[in-house]
């Protein structure tokens, strides 16, 4: 088993209470040495904190959802507002950029193929051989004999 001892909620509460009493005792000892105006401000702050704690205990501790968030028809709006046109545009913008990028890539690829075909056509038309010679069966033999070795 683990060497770590799991503590129950009651043990934790007792430890917290003891810690709070010790801190309170130390603060009480030092309270005599503080000036009067500071001790009065601390007293007022302590009373406000206790009042807030009382109100917090009375109010429901756990709320299912904040009151200003509205969920309905598949949309979530903050403070009851529906998303505006800027939010919708920002949501669609990545899709628009993706489609534009794919179209640009396709155009670039087509242009590269056209340029390669144009270079080949220019080389064929600028050569001394007529285009019919390339389809001749003896053309491969001509290339083998003509190539320098």
Descriptive notes:
The chain has 149 residues and is mainly alpha-helical. It folds into 2 domains: 1-62; 70-149, no CATH class. The protein contains 5 helices and 2 strands, in the order ααββααα. Strands 1-2 form a two-stranded antiparallel sheet. A hairpin with a 2-residue loop joins strand 1 and strand 2.
Q: What descriptive keywords fit this protein?
A:
single chain, 149 residues, mainly alpha, 2 domains, two-stranded antiparallel sheet, 5 helices, 67% helix
List strands and helices in order, with pairings:
Blueprint: H1 9-31, H2 36-58, E1 69-72, E2 75-78, H3 85-126, H4 131-134, H5 139-146
Antiparallel strand pairs: 1-2
Pfam families: DUF3619
InterPro entries: DUF3619 (IPR022064)
Protein name: DUF3619 family protein
Number of helices: 5
For the largest sheet, list the strands in their spatial order: 1-2
Q: Strand tally, please?
A: 2
Shape: rod-shaped
Unreliable residue runs: none
Oligomer state equals single chain
Outline the biggest β-sheet.
Answer: 2 strands, antiparallel
What's the order of the H and E elements?
A: HHEEHHH
Count the domains. 2
What would you report as the Rg, rounded to the nearest angstrom? 42 Å
Distance N to C terminus: 83 Å
Assign the structural class, choosing from mainly alpha, mainly beta, alpha/beta, alpha+beta, or little secondary structure: mainly alpha
Mean pLDDT, nearest integer? 78
Helix content: 55-70%
The amount of beta strand, in percent, is 5-15%
Keywords: Membrane, Transmembrane, Transmembrane helix
Protein name: DUF3619 family protein
Transmembrane segments: 85-105
InterPro entries: DUF3619
